[in-house]
Specification:
This is IS200/IS605 family transposase. The chain is α+β, with helices and mostly antiparallel strands. It has one domain: Alpha-Beta Plaits, CATH 3.30.70. It contains two helices and two strands; from the N terminus they run αββα. It has a two-stranded antiparallel ribbon with strand order 1-2.
């Protein structure tokens, strides 16, 4: 689970949620991570991921948050 900064309700807009999911899928393909489940609520998201042991959970989340935040800020 991770939350946007200050738990802003960014997923109230359907297009933001859809684009977020697309970005996560793209990032996971790049890092060879399998998405088991991905769901968004209005102010947070739950992700169940399957990755190689060489990639720590903290590293995975840092990369996902960095990519999605940058792209969503540019587009919306």
């Amino acid at each position: 689970m991770f939350c946007p900064r200050y738990r802003r309700k960014i997923f109230l807009q359907a297009d933001v949620e859809q684009r977020f999911k697309e970005l996560v899928h793209e990032g996971c393909e790049e890092l060879q991570i399998v998405i088991v489940a991905l769901e968004c609520d209005k102010d947070h998201t739950h992700m169940f991921l399957n990755a190689l042991p060489s990639l720590s959970p903290a590293d995975m989340m840092a990369k996902m948050k960095g990519v999605t935040s940058q792209k969503l800020r540019e587009e919306f």
